[in-house]
Amino acid sequence: MGSKFRLMKTLLRATCLLLISLSSASASEGHEHGSERLPDVHLKATQENQKTSAPNPFLSLLNSIALLRSGVSPKGGTSQSNTVPDVIWTPPANVEWIQYDFNASGDQFCDAVDGFCAGWLETASQECKDNYRFGDSVQDTQTRLEYEGCVYDMVFRPYLSMAVERETSELTDSQKENAARLKALGWNQPSGQPVAFRVASDIPEPIVEASKEGMFAAIDLLGNYGPLRVYLVGNDLGVAEELANDFCDFNYPPDQKAYCLADQGEAIREMAYIYPGGNGFQQSSWTLDAPVQSFVHNPYADENNQHSTDEGELISDRRVNAHEYFHVYQGAHNVYRGADDSAFGWATTRWVEEGAAIYFEQLISERSNWQTSASIDARVWQDLNAMKAFTTRFPGVSMRDVDTGAQTERLFSYCGELCIGALQYEFGHIAFQYLAVKTSEDTVLFDYWHEYTELGWANAFEKVFDRSIADFYTEFEAFLLLSVEEQLDALGIDP
Ligand SMILES: [Zn+2]
Description:
Blueprint: H1 2-27, H2 30-33, E1 35-41, H3 45-48, H4 57-70, E2 79-80, E3 96-97, E4 118-120, H5 126-131, H6 138-146, E5 154-156, E6 161-162, H7 173-184, E7 196-199, H8 205-222, E8 228-232, H9 237-251, H10 257-262, H11 264-273, E9 279-285, E10 292-298, H12 311-333, H13 350-367, H14 373-393, H15 405-438, H16 441-465, H17 469-480, H18 484-490
Parallel strand pairs: 7-8, 8-10
Antiparallel strand pairs: 1-9, 2-6, 3-4, 4-5, 9-10
Helix pairs in contact: 1-4, 4-15, 8-12, 9-11, 12-13, 13-15, 14-15, 15-16
Bound molecules: zinc ion.
Zinc ion binds next to helix 12 and helix 13.
């Protein structure tokens, strides 16, 4: 069984890279084929502790898409210090500094005369030392994807952020046309058409019921957006093939079906036979004559690729479906689509996208009595602790570092994708908990997204939360300096 599991993990790694290359090919024509998808990672409660050491490949995929899409030199900007008060930073003993000058191009990543910003801890594995590489070449980038966990064998000097203007870009004519068309088609209005499910026949009924329960609860709370088709993928490859076909017929015009079958279709097949499950992706197919939304979910399966109907798994299925429906809801409120990659303020920043969805997942789980408030609060406590560990390991790195493609690429060149994933999930989640305490649940769930439609994510943030994005980062970084007990208290949670 051990060797089978190892094989599965090896396959998973190889596939991850394959998916990345497929996605990079499609990224350049992203707006042409007119769909956007949001891969997601949802680990069951018992797995969440391992999240930082065993990230889900979908997370890699998401990050890689954005990185490859940006096409901006990682060292094209100037650096700036975070506004958090400087804490004296001293490296642990016996660090073996890596002879790579991060500052060579003139862009300062860290405050070190020789530009050696990262080093191996005394305990670092030889495998990491032999394989992990900094640098801009394709091979270097591959090693950082393939050996991403090696950053946990390293120490990093405090990161100096890239300075960016956070001015929302003027709308282009094409964005205005897209918005007028989508609004005329009712894209951003609740629809009378009920959600449709396509369910693999090999999924046990309790899992199907739990998944539908999650979806319906989310629709009840947020409104019915769509037309939406939900695909529940099991572990049988033949059945998954039928779902892939249905998905591609629903989301693509006929002349792009082959492309879809090789891309998202392949992802659906791999969900059935490689990935352990508990994950999904959402897609907004907004350039179709009749635009639609979809969500694909693969319930958790064990290392023998068997589904489980334990209550813990069913809770996870409810939560995943509610979470993904929140992405459908976000997608419906996004009408000024097709902004240039260099534009700011329209394509939602990662931590807002994921943070709001996790906040919603927590809220609906409590309101629907899927989980006790103690286990819901435990997730907050866990994420606060994860952020503490993160800040110790990657000092100076913050949510302010992933607003633009250029920033994200620069951060990736520094500490790899694990850094980026934590900022969108754990940091994003806590940021929305914090914003909800400062305003209200309804502000976060409804008012913000209502304003987002016309203003874009950044200007809507400023209007609804009454602070600029940059000011919020400074405020939130001060919150991060508090002890976990003080943070829980500030979030209204009994420590
Ligand atoms: Zn998500």
